[in-house]
Specification:
Blueprint (H helix, E strand, L loop, with lengths): L4 E4 L3 H10 L3 E4 L5 H6 L7 E4 L9 E3 L3 E5 L4 H6 L1 H6 L1 H8 L4 H6 L2 H7 L6 H7 L3 E4 L3 E3 H4 E3 L2 E2 L7 E7 L3 E8 L6 E9 L4 E6 L6 E2 L1 H9 L4 H4 L16 H21 L2
Parallel strand pairs: 1-3, 2-3
Antiparallel strand pairs: 4-5, 5-10, 6-7, 6-10, 8-9, 11-12, 12-13, 13-14
Amino acid sequence: MYAFKYHRAKSVAGASGAVAKNPDAKLLAGGQSLVAAMKLRLAHPEELVDLGAIKELAGIKVTANTVTIGAMTRHAEVAASAEVKKAIPALASLVESIGDRQVRNMGTLGGSIANNDPAADYPAGLVGLAATVNTNKRKIGADDFFTGMYETVLEPGEVITSVAFPVPKRAAYMKFKNPASRFAIVGVFVADTGSGVRVAVTGAAPVVFRVAEMEKALAAKFAPESVASIKVSADGLNSDLHAKADYRAHLITVMARRAVESALHTR
């Protein structure tokens, strides 16, 4: 690991200022991606700005229509939250499927979506639920937040403070996971919002995406058979030692059908 300076920020403004004035500084949340990359010398920031001491960045607030989760809230807290399980059980289930117990006890919502690993689970939840990412500067719709592999619209000095998830009528997340890492080879989040249906896919491509044809079919009839015969093109999908593009395309349909089945039995 390379040598670096370490700064424990006491406020969002302090953290924002530190990374804004030093282009080689990085925000440190749970560290489950950044620290591993540093150990492998794939990343070498000059300075780490630790968000762990900023209490207002952690916590869960649930209202009748929205679940708001602080950026520094650990995965384990979300997965275990009785309020989240009641309001959006699909979201609690998604978070419970992230990594292993050690990762869930350290990893955070903000760190996950800021890193935007193409096989991460949280992006599917954000896009599937039409969530809003709140930062110290603005509000960003999930559809606009993720722009490419490990890329987001976050600007220098911008700090994620929380994410607001609208409570859906019913929803579910299903994934075909890598047995070693538990990352999604393909993960599909289906949500019936009451005013429309959203189908978000992670793991299959360089960035999370929606499947319009499935959304239209499910809006007409929310049933597994509505998506069972829909074929997704393999063009542009990931192809690696874990799964070829055409297999990932097939898995999207399989996981979508299973997600709809699950959503019909939860909400």
